[in-house]
Amino acid sequence: MKKLDIAQELSSNAYPGRGIVIGKSDCGKYAVTAYFIMGRSVNSRNRVFVEDGDGIRTQAFDPSKLEDPHLIIYAPVRVLGNKLIVTNGDQTDTIYELMDRQQTFEQSLRTREFEDDAPNYTPRISGILHFEDGGFNYAMSILKSANGNPDSCQRYTFSFTNPIAGEGRFIHTYMGDGNPLPSFEGEPKLVGISGNIDDFTDMLWTNLNEDNKVSLFVRYVDLETGAVETRIINKNK
Questions:
Q1: pLDDT per position as a tens digit, 208-225
Q2: Domain boundaries in the chain?
Q3: CA-wise closest residue to 26 among 56, 6, 8
Q4: Which of 26, 33, 91, 132: CA 20 to 30 A from 80?
């Protein structure tokens, strides 16, 4: 698989929707996670990321303008023991709760489907990092409709063991803008990861479409010490 330039992937797509990046820094020292949200409607754009314990949650920037919290207010990132969960919806809580009861990532997601936002039927994308013995592995999932037909839910899980330094995977909800919005296709894209957390954060934010970007979360976890660095950027300030 060809390694893609994530800056180019973002800058050439006006509306990838919500996206997850997971991988390892080019120095090999850090596990890297990023999650961004975009919006076309006033309701979707009226959001910020705020820290919530070890994770984050979405919050209305202007509560008076919040029309419908359904599908837009949730906890994208939570930590369960030595696992970091990141998703584009309230399935974060499903994964957290069911894995806490000894179910697997994949088993947890079998209880969920794509979002009920006809006619888009937005895919639910999820990722999980498992840290152990100074290293980590990760998995990504997408739950999507059958080419826009809500009668069938298609479930795909991708697992990555012993990640390569300087490489990551990128999955997002939409192939691009449209009406209805076309769901992501294929396996998570292989992308390069380089620079420190500030460089990587700045690169992602700069290349997201200026009109549609809303918020960005980036986390670097030191694989040797477990130390965590997090960056959050909100367009609404």
A1: 999 999 999 999 999 999
A2: 6-181+192-234
A3: 6
A4: 26
Identity of the residue numbered 59: Q
DSSP bridge partners of 144? 154
**CA 66 vs CA 43, 47, 153: distances in Å:** 6, 9, 30
Sign of the dihedral defined by the CA atoms of residues 144, 172, 158, 128, in that order: negative
Separation CA 46–CA 63 (nearest Å): 8
User: Whole-angstrom Cα distance, residue 86 to residue 76?
Assistant: 5
Q: What is the pLDDT of residues 94-122, one digit of tens each?
A: 999 999 999 999 999 999 999 999 999 99
Helix residue ranges, H only, the chain: 6-11, 42-45, 91-99, 105-109, 197-207
In our burial notation (b when 16+ CB lie closer than 10 A, e otherwise), range 103-132 reads bebeebbeebbbbeeeebbbbbbbbbbbbe
Paired tokens of 163: 């990640």
Other beta carbons less than 10 A from residue 87's beta carbon:
27
Task: Read off the pTM.
Answer: 0.97
Options 3.30.70.20, 3.60.20.20, 3.30.360.20, 3.40.50.10380; which CATH number does 6-181+192-234 get?
3.60.20.20
